[in-house]
């Protein structure tokens, strides 16, 4: 029997579960340093990272070699036939300078070659990781349940996918190389000092432990400040995204000044957060300079006296003076590099936390080709509540025979649209189960399930593109003639050909260049082209005029033949010919029957009909 008994038993309590292993893993990942998480993510580029690091170190080695050649040249000028090169057998001064010139050319060429090599590798690495990370984050985002998006702002998610990943790319493009080269500079110059002049090396390099300690201390202080900066920019982007999407509402309620003031508050919060981070990071370089001053002064004084007394050669003294200068400038940039590093690590945390978000709705392993679907749907003792809210569906049981049209009516908030979301597995039932052709939805391949369902909702979403592209959305291999045929069935062809470019007319973002009725008919054409065994009409005619409604009803009558159809409606006139009508109240089915049977019962449906038909 099509309209069977309605089962509404007491709700069953959801079974409590222990801590899932993926939750433990997720917590462990959150405690891991963001740089380690980034390296683990980019493991496939490990060879490229090591190669780029090697080229950076070699470039710095050859970059630091010219001061050594200057020292050798000074030694030739001062000692001439007794110079270091002369001791190797070349006593002619001109010949010695030729050797120095030749070595200079070789060193400069090698420095340039390795600079090109590391720059090319680091930049390509930055682009590759940025590309992969954005794609992986977006793909993972698509797999998350609908509740995740309803609890977060679009602008905040856009900030992660765009701004945070770009921030990471900027660091990999230059900051990573800067850190490696500063480290190489300290090691190479430190080794050179201890080899050339161990008596003054400890004086010149004594500030280094304090510089390194101060750098790590600053890093710890800056980390929470930049995490706050990334959070504030997320709020700001969210505000901008919402306001641009709702510009019509803002204008119609003359709320421009109000929204500008709210944006000013968010922008001011972002500015203040950045200012706090800048106040701390800006002090880094001056402090580093003061520490380096100690080593530089010690070298000038004690090294100079050693050169005068003959304990150190003039050439060696020249080399040390040049090297301490070469150490100075990279260390003064260390503050800017750490600033960039902390911004990148804050962004990395946000992106990785998104990637670590567990997927709540997993696909089943039972395949169900569309051409094999009969369309019989059963809800069995289904219970569902949104997070932190009262139950919306309370142990509901409902049989929908294959090939029939059933309608669900009821007051706002009664749970009608929630049934659609559960059938599409946009949400998961808490107890009970839903079956399609006798197969539990959780066992079905998720893509197979959604391929066999066509949804036409009240809030039609059209993508920025042509009319033809929007009709063919989801049926990407279709032909032009099939698109036109679907548009004719949906009674959309006539208005489409009158558009400036016909089927190639750009509809604008969310279809804003079209009227509500035109968008609705394009959505129906999209469903027709998909040709699903199950069709869901969720308030498909509630926002259109009577003439458009009549046109849509004619097209719906054609496409619902021999197809399982679930129609959710407020306008009872649109579903009066359904094979069975169910009335929902507070998450339960309270009435069922045909239009005539429900009028005879003189219940909720009958009362709604009298109100809408003007009988009372």
Automatic annotation (TrEMBL):
Domain ABC transmembrane type-1: 50-343
Main location: membrane
Coiled-coil region: none
PROSITE patterns for the chain: ABC_TM1F, ABC_TRANSPORTER_1, ABC_TRANSPORTER_2
Sample GO molecular function, one term: ATP hydrolysis activity
Lipid bilayer topology: Multi-pass membrane protein
Transmembrane domains' residue ranges: 93-110, 179-205, 277-302
Cell compartments where the protein resides: Cell membrane
Highest taxon above the source species: Bacteria
Keyword Ubl conjugation: no
Pfam family for this entry, one: ABC_membrane
Name of the protein in its database record: ABC transporter related
The species this protein was found in: Nostoc punctiforme (strain ATCC 29133 / PCC 73102)
């Amino acid at each position: 029997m099509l309209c069977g008994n309605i089962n509404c038993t007491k709700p069953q309590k959801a079974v409590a579960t222990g801590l899932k292993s993926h939750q433990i893993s997720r917590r462990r990942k959150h405690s891991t340093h963001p740089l380690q998480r980034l390296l683990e993510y980019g493991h496939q580029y490990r060879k490229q990272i090591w190669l780029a690091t090697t080229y950076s170190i070699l470039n710095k080695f050859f970059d630091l070699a010219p001061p050594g050649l200057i020292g050798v040249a000074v030694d030739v000028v001062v000692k001439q036939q007794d110079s270091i090169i002369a001791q190797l057998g070349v006593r002619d001064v001109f010949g010695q300078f030729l050797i120095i010139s030749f070595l200079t050319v070789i060193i400069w060429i090698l420095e340039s070659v390795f600079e090109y090599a590391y720059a090319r590798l680091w930049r390509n690495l930055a682009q590759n990781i940025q590309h992969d990370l954005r794609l992986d984050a977006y793909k993972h985002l698509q797999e998350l349940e609908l509740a995740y998006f309803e609890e977060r702002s679009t602008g905040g998610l856009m900030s992660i996918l765009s701004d945070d990943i770009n921030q990471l790319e900027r660091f990999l493009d230059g900051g990573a190389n800067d850190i490696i080269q500063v480290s190489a500079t300290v090691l190479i110059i430190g080794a050179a000092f201890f080899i050339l002049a161990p008596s003054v090396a400890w004086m010149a390099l004594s500030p280094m432990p304090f510089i390194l300690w101060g750098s790590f201390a600053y890093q710890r202080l800056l980390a929470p400040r930049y995490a706050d900066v990334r959070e504030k920019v997320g709020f700001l982007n969210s505000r901008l995204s919402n306001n641009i999407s709702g510009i019509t509402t803002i204008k119609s309620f003359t709320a421009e000044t109000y929204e500008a003031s709210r944006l000013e508050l968010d922008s001011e919060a972002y500015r203040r957060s950045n200012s706090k981070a800048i106040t701390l990071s800006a002090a880094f370089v001056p402090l580093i300079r003061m520490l380096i001053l100690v080593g530089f002064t010690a070298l000038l004084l004690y090294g100079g006296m050693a050169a005068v007394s003959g304990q150190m050669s003039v050439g060696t003294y020249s080399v040390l003076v040049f090297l301490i200068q070469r150490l100075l400038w990279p260390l003064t940039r260390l503050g800017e590099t750490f600033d960039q590093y902390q911004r990148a690590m804050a962004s990395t945390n946000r992106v990785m936390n998104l990637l670590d978000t567990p997927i709540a709705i997993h696909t089943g392993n039972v395949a169900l080709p569309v051409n094999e679907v009969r369309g019989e749907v059963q809800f069995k003792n289904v219970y569902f509540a949104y997070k932190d809210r009262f139950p919306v569906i309370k142990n509901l049981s409902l049989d929908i025979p294959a090939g029939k049209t059933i309608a669900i009516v009821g007051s706002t908030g009664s749970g009608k649209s929630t049934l659609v979301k559960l059938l599409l597995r946009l949400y998961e039932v808490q107890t009970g189960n839903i079956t399609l052709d006798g197969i539990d939805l959780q066992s079905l391949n998720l893509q197979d399930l959604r391929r066999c369902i066509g949804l036409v909702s009240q809030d039609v979403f059209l993508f920025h593109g042509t009319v033809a592209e929007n009709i063919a959305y989801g049926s990407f291999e279709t032909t032009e003639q099939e698109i036109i045929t679907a548009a004719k069935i949906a009674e959309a062809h006539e208005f489409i050909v009158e558009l400036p470019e016909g089927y190639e007319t750009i509809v604008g973002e969310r279809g804003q260049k079209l009227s509500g009725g035109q968008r609705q008919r394009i959505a129906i054409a999209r469903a027709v082209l998909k040709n699903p065994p199950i069709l869901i009409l969720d308030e498909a005619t509630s926002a259109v005029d009577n003439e458009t409604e009549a046109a849509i009803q004619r097209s719906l009558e054609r496409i619902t033949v021999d197809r399982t159809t679930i129609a959710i409606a407020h306008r009872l006139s649109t579903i009066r010919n359904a094979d069975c009508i169910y009335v929902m109240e507070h998450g339960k089915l309270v009435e069922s029957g045909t239009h005539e049977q429900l009028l005879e019962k003189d219940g909720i449906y009958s009362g709604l009909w009298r109100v809408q038909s003007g009988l009372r």
